[in-house]
Amino acid sequence: MDYKQVAKSILDNVGGADNVKDATHCFTRLRLVLRDPAKASKDAVSKLEGVIQVVEAGGQFQVVLGGKVNKIYDEFLPMVNVKGGVVDADGKPIEEVKGDKGSVWNYILQTISNIFTPIVPAIAASGLIKGLLSAAVKLEWLAADNSTYVILNAASNAIFYFMPIFLAYTTAKALKRNRVIAMMLGAFLCMPAIGSMMTAVNPETGELLKNTIFGLPVVKMAFKIGESVKFFEYTESVIPIILAVIVLKWLEKGLVKIIPEMLQIILVPGLSLIIMVPVILTVVGPVGAYIGYGMQWVYSQVMGFSPLVGGALVGALWGVFVIFGAHRALLPVGLNDVSVSAAAHKCGAGHNTLMCYAGAANFSQAGAALGVMLKTRSKKLRQVAGAATISAFLVGITEPAIYGCNLRKKRPMICAIIAGAVGGAIMGIGGASNHGFANNGILTIPTYSCADNTSGQFVAFLIGIAVAFFGAAVLTYIVGFEDDKDEELRVDA
User: Of 97, 252, 405, 439, which has the maximum CB count within 10 A?
Assistant: First the structure.
């Protein structure tokens, strides 16, 4: 496949470089924000070599490409100038054409996706390492004080400990603001001196010590998580830095308007830092912390009310959310759960159940694709379904399965929803949880086994994914679907 030609064909059929306002990608999709969506031909792009499906959701024109997306994106990006806007023949920026911005919900969803999607691979890698280390300790291959364990454990913790820095970068990029200044704010929150100040207590009274900045009180907080009480510190936090960068965006805009251009290079970043540090410690940070703990409390109450129902709902609907890209809006909930719950676990890392239950949905999509592969008489559909099964089964990337066969054939999608609900319910009953935050596939199974999880919880997860996978495959095979004729199938897996 000529990736450059595929990229050019996509660009030609979405209105050309002048019509591309922004271009990003996730695991399987080339995500385009178009100035005028009416100029794009969804049908033409859908028929291109390598294109599995085209989805218009969240204010984006999303081209589902599967595992080829990285290579096609690398060829596509030089063809447009999404960083500085489109330029004309003289190198001057072309005035932005106002396209359909969509609803406020679409904008929020798109922004959340742009903030969290880039860090998901690093978080998944961290979870994999933690799971492997936990398994190695249980099997007595490594001791917790072994230098190899200590080093690898530190590597796996880095993404969480320095989370404010990573989120500062992605948030600033999503909001098109100064990334380095935003990262400085994130790094400031991770400084050991700030952490020590936030958790310092009076040895006689046990109360948090009082500190001020410019005479303003630094707000300190303590939260009860389970049986543990955690003094809040900004390392591993999620919401505070995102709110801080949002405030920074408007502060920078205001400073640029009032400061002479010749002084902006020094005064804008300098004043931004001087103003934002006390704003974070006295207002934005505490608000973000309470929002984060509030999110965790609401989620835990909902799931605690009926883990069976909660697991069944997530297992059933996660694949549906993927269709519309809405699953990205739930990432902050799971990631925040990991951040907030870390203090309650002796292994030192947070857990979450959201991605655990989503595993039932992922494996059910893989199973339904397997059912299609076994049932169809079409050679091309069998190839598409086979490749989609492998992608979803190994690493939990389900878009090729959803768009390549399950959703297109309708009945396999229904079978996946049913099997996913049953698998999720089993996980909920058994109290299964994810160690860290990882996508769901065979390669990430070790993330569900750690010092805090009982063997029963791990077995519940294994039974849940087995029921989801094999249940969806058998149901799809029995229920069947309207088969393809090879000449009718135009997707290239």
Answer: 405
- Domain borders along the chain are 3-102, 162-303, 308-488
Is pTM beyond 0.85? Reply is no
**Measured distance CA(320)–CA(162) in Å, rounded:** 32
Angle of the 192-199 helix axis to the 179-190 helix axis, nearest 10: 50
Beta bridge partners of 201: 208
Q: Per-residue pLDDT for 225 more than 70?
A: no
Spatial separation of the C-alpha atoms in residues 392 and 366, rounded to whole Å: 5
209 in Cβ contact with 282 (< 8 Å): no
Q: From the options 3.90.1530.30, 3.40.50.720, 3.40.50.300, 3.30.1360.60, give the CATH code of 3-102.
A: 3.30.1360.60
Residue with tokens 């931004």: 272
Residue 79 confidence (pLDDT) above 50: yes
